[in-house]
Specification:
2 domains, alpha+beta, about 30% strand, about 230 residues, four-stranded mixed beta sheet, four-stranded antiparallel beta sheet, Immunoglobulin-like
Length: about 230
């Protein structure tokens, strides 16, 4: 496990130096002593290895297939699924046993002001045609205050969903509401509901840090991939 973490750190540093302006990067590391080959969309890395890097990826959902080699000419597909790749980011993942793919971390490769999907561009507000606008800070603080005065997760969740159903939020605002809940189940349900009411969905991966369990992160990631 330490070796995998060290390898991930090395890949992060390399990725920053070579991929700043080349789109997003997907780094995949594997546990154990087996060799693998990996396919991302139509790009197939046929050379057996334990660590893989796919560069210059466009933001969106990408189909990942992992094949374990049981002998030189007998590959077995052990994983097939979609991974959400944010804008200009490095997504670092670990393939674990039993067909599990875990997102270890996601590293932004460019400052926010270079992101064309951001509502705020550096110190200048950019308004896009037909782009919904998130609630202002004053209104959002009122929303937070109201939700914070509710004692139980179930009641807070119902009110939060009712409020958000008629408004738009930023990812950062969604995170602040998520952190009001006591249980992962409530956080996950609200995160799924709020995704369709978020103006900067390309940054929604930042909500992953608000969950206690990896299973919640995996379920939200799969929900986003299907959306």
């Amino acid at each position: 496990m330490k070796k995998v973490i060290f390898t991930l750190l090395i890949q992060i540093l390399v990725t920053i130096s070579i991929a700043h302006a080349q789109g997003s990067v997907f780094n995949l590391n594997t546990n154990g002593n087996y060799l693998y080959t990996v396919q991302v969309d139509n790009h197939f890395m046929s050379t057996p290895d334990r660590n893989f890097t796919f560069q210059n990826l466009a933001p969106g959902n990408h189909h990942v297939r992992i094949f374990k080699l049981r002998g030189r000419h007998n590959p077995k597909e052990v994983y097939s699924g979609f991974v959400s790749i944010p804008f200009n980011s490095a997504v670092n993942a670990v393939y674990e046993r039993y067909g599990q793919l875990r997102i270890a971390n996601i590293l932004a490769l460019a400052p926010p002001c270079y992101d064309p999907y951001q509502v705020e561009h550096c110190n200048t507000t950019v308004v896009y045609q037909n782009q919904p606008q998130a609630v202002c800070d004053a209104e959002f603080n009122q929303i937070l205050g109201s939700l914070n005065n509710i004692n139980f997760d179930s009641s807070r969740l119902n009110v939060a969903k009712q409020i958000v159903s008629e408004k738009y939020l930023t990812t950062n605002q969604v995170i602040q509401i998520i952190n009001l809940f006591s249980f992962d189940s409530s956080r996950l349900e609200f995160a799924k509901f709020a995704y369709g009411h978020t103006v900067d969905r390309n940054r929604y991966f930042q909500t992953y840090n608000s969950f206690t369990f990896d299973s919640s992160v995996n379920e939200l990631s799969e929900f986003i991939a299907r959306s």
